[in-house]
């Protein structure tokens, strides 16, 4: 047995014989959460509506992750399978799972909730033990949101079981997983960096031991640190980059003006995060520096149309542009660089993104001021609303 094999065996011991059900067999599911679960010894069953991907997972039982970084390498993920999330096998899989995770996108959580409710009812009827469901999404409180959605579809008996036995710990996840074309359908490319924080008090029963998962009692600090730094900078790089005719985030960050504006926005959100959550100022400055390095990774071809998609959601009042601006404003801190990002988001175009088209329709039919209010919940006359209008006009030149 090689040293690598020994390491894998040691990793596998804590969860040997356990099954994790992961909703979402896309790049993030396979390249991040599902991979960590497999590397921690779980038998991972992916649930998705993509029949081609599910068939490949069932037939092959393994796939490769390509680390797109200076330390380039390939990792084989094995012991995996798949079920259709709208098929007959999904409810028994929920009833039998030792852990459930998701990476489906925030808007899909509502769609999978009825299925989870049926599975939890089946688990209750079978006398199943504690279960934890972790929604690994770019959404503050995603697991709590999913819990509320499940409760809307569950019977009284299922609700009683859920209240006592099913945990929905919230999580913060961070890994850039760009579109990737490998030799095989299931191949996925990822950056080397990854971070996964989960709130400890949200678990029911024993907290699972998963390599790469960090448990914390103060999750909101890490959720907001990631959403208001990495996601903020990523989105602004995409929106400003597209305005300047740049196709990828890396290309946008090679443009000196764009890089300065992205950095300024992350520094403004950072000042608010340091005051709000007590992060060390130097520590957070280094965190921003690491993110800038990730954005400029030449091995990752991350198109601005992918990163900027769903601008309607991303302009929401608690999202990555307005959320940190509100936090900073309440502390009396500058917000102009953050609001420049919001103004740039209003220009976003993508023929493949329904929300981009919805946004442009709103602007054409309702006008700029009303659209800003509808999306951000900032009333006309609010200084931040006025600043977005001003920056929008400035960006048009």
From TrEMBL:
<feature type="binding site">
    <location>
        <begin position="20"/>
        <end position="31"/>
    </location>
    <ligand>
        <name>NAD(+)</name>
    </ligand>
</feature>
<dbReference type="InterPro" id="IPR023027">
    <property type="entry name" value="Mannitol_DH_CS"/>
</dbReference>
<feature type="region of interest" description="Disordered">
    <location>
        <begin position="1"/>
        <end position="20"/>
    </location>
</feature>
<dbReference type="InterPro" id="IPR013328">
    <property type="entry name" value="6PGD_dom2"/>
</dbReference>
<dbReference type="InterPro" id="IPR013118">
    <property type="entry name" value="Mannitol_DH_C"/>
</dbReference>
<dbReference type="InterPro" id="IPR008927">
    <property type="entry name" value="6-PGluconate_DH-like_C_sf"/>
</dbReference>
<dbReference type="InterPro" id="IPR013131">
    <property type="entry name" value="Mannitol_DH_N"/>
</dbReference>
<dbReference type="Pfam" id="PF01232">
    <property type="entry name" value="Mannitol_dh"/>
</dbReference>
<keyword id="KW-0560">Oxidoreductase</keyword>
<protein>
    <recommendedName>
        <fullName>Mannitol-1-phosphate 5-dehydrogenase</fullName>
        <ecNumber>1.1.1.17</ecNumber>
    </recommendedName>
</protein>
<feature type="domain" description="Mannitol dehydrogenase C-terminal">
    <location>
        <begin position="218"/>
        <end position="395"/>
    </location>
</feature>
<dbReference type="InterPro" id="IPR023028">
    <property type="entry name" value="Mannitol_1_phos_5_DH"/>
</dbReference>
<dbReference type="InterPro" id="IPR000669">
    <property type="entry name" value="Mannitol_DH"/>
</dbReference>
<feature type="compositionally biased region" description="Polar residues">
    <location>
        <begin position="1"/>
        <end position="16"/>
    </location>
</feature>
<dbReference type="InterPro" id="IPR036291">
    <property type="entry name" value="NAD(P)-bd_dom_sf"/>
</dbReference>
<keyword id="KW-0520">NAD</keyword>
<dbReference type="Pfam" id="PF08125">
    <property type="entry name" value="Mannitol_dh_C"/>
</dbReference>
<feature type="domain" description="Mannitol dehydrogenase N-terminal">
    <location>
        <begin position="20"/>
        <end position="212"/>
    </location>
</feature>
<comment type="similarity">
    <text>Belongs to the mannitol dehydrogenase family.</text>
</comment>
